[in-house]
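Q: What does the assembled structure look like for these inputs?
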Amino acid sequence: MQSVYKSKKPPIIVTPNSFLAWIGKSLLIIIGLAVIYILATNLFDKPFLFAQNVINGIQLGFVYALIALGYTMVYGIVKLINFAHGDVFMVGAFVSFFAVERFGLHQWPLRVFPAVNPFISTVIGTVTTILLSMVVCVLLAITIERVAYKPLRDAPRIAALITAIGVSFFLEYFGLLGFVFSARFIPYQRPFEVVTWYIKNGIYRVQEGVAPPEGAITISNILIIIIIATIFVQIFLQYLVRRTKIGIAMRATSFDKPTARLMGIEVDQVISFTFAIGASFAALGGVLYAIAYPSIRTLMGVYPGLKAFVAAVLGGIGSIPGAFVGALIMGQAEAMTSGYISTPMRDAVAFTILILVLLIKPTGIFGEPEKEKA
Amino acid sequence: MKSFKFLSVLVILSFLLSACGGAGGAAEQKELKLAVLAPLSGPVPTFGEMTRDGALLAIEEWNAKGGVLGMTIVPIVEDSQCTPDPAVNAANKVVNQDKVHYIIGEVCSKASIPISEIANAAKVVQISPTSTNPSVTVDGNGVTKAYIFRACFIDPFQGSVGAKFAMEKIGAKTAFIMVDQANDYVKGLAEFFEKAFVDAGGTIVGKESYTANDTDFSAILAKIADTKPDVVYLPDYYNIVNLAMKQAKEKGITTPFIGGDGWDSADLDTSAADGGYFTNHYSPEDPRPEVQNFRKAFETKYGGKTPDALAALAYDATNLMLSAIEQAGADDTDKVKAALEAITFSGVSGTITFDQAHNPVKSATILKVTTDGVKFESIVNP
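A:
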């Protein structure tokens, strides 16, 4: 009689129906060919418009990469999908907004030392603003981790996941209150002016009220800043994880938490540190995103957060290069969808990618099949 | 003795009663009651105050001229709160207790619709100054409510006016439309713009949709840069306008943008929307004498307060009603509604005539956005 409770159910063996699998595979190949066909015809039809779409996708993809890193690192170490990450991104944007709008932090060197060069003042002021956002978000993330996730560390993973969703809703709807950030769409005041250049037989600055010539491709300083910042973050992270003591501790914690603890690693501190690093990148992403698309509101983090999550899954959740590559692919997928199908379709395409990845290769591009731990 | 007492009481009572009745009858002939239902509390009290002030100014001016048909106009102001329940209570009170035959109000469509049901059933003429929802004047079966009118144009009408402005004043031959498919207001304006633009011989070179959550318009803007339209029609609210037009400026797009009254907000980023145009009901800067006289009278009466579109439309709605009563020649709601259906009325917000659905056919004001703020551009007749 006891055996009812003790006996393991026989594993459900899924025998792949070869016919259905064949249909599925050929359907995928047809979709793939159709995508390639659409892209190729458009590439030959209007190569400059195509190049412009690629650049738009790069800008989006690099911002997603900054957010996706936080998802993938936290997942790598505590196997938790931190859904509040997109809202930390939002808080980062708001902190910089208040710093610039209320306190003029983006020009503090000019006010303290009036003799300083305005350009250098803007650079130092902007970096200070970003650092302030990062510090606030780091404190926020560590608080969230200590208050909401740490007590659940030994609970089933589903409990922690639901808590993460709860924290996300809390940040969003607490922010919606009138005395916090309010529900308004707020025009974001940039710390510096966005300058645009067009490329056609050389690089020229776009003047207001003068249209660039036919077949020109436009790029902006914010695009370049986003690319440089993301690449810098990527290199920094590789160095941190591969070469430093804390990086070794992170990898050890990720690999086997109890053993890491036995080896004298302060597992809780390493986990907090991981949350902090992820949050600081999200804050950086939030500020850059708000500068690029200058309207902020409390729910601004929801979609970028979800898409960065898809990017992390696509690249292989837990893998740092995977998050980067996944985000670039997501950026291109969105730019191409809105460029050649329609803008509202891009969210549908983003989440279709998620479903396809989960169906075909749940471990993602760079992910390794997870070993069941005893 | 007893019977004498009883008789005398009866006689006195009857005198009193007849005196009362006489006084009442005389007052009814000299007074015309006009109810003003406005949201003086609730979510939009400033709308209510402006509406009340506009209506009372019109009534004061009529009374100064000797009233309507020799009757003094007595306003009955009730707070309908922009909410269905208080609106129904206010409507029942003025219709059943005060026995009014004419209602000006409400501001919000969701309050005007239940009021219109009560008014129409009681054969009371109602003019809503600012409710734009089509169901205010038309019931669920598409039948026009006989006694209900409005003084403002309905939303999609702005699309037609925008198209006309683009073709006649900007000289546009080609247009590009940006539309949020999930927003009925935006969709309605875009559809009417497209129809009017194509009917007048223009070409729509592109129509792209986005969602209210979007922040990145670069793909749509790349298409605009590629198709080079003469105008872009973007009939959304200011938040989308701020983002889309800022990104357009950064990409060196010089095409003028045109929109609707959703742009009308203190939060509109005038540096981003600089060079754009939008349609609206009224502008206090309109140089026409009707507007300037109204503005002067309003500012004198209310201590320098500049009248907004709500005050102007309430003023027009009240004048419309009183003119119709005068033309009808009697305090008879059937005659007044017939007079309204045939009226041509020149008001602050334009010359008004009514179509089959009791929606006004009237001119719209075009405003231009500059870095110094929003300026009056011109008037466009339908």
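Chain A touches chain B at residues 46, 49, 52-53, 56, 59-60, 184-185, 187, 194, 196, 198, 206-212, 218, 220, 289, 292-295, 299-300, 302-303, 335, 338-339, 342-344, 347 (CB under 8 Å).
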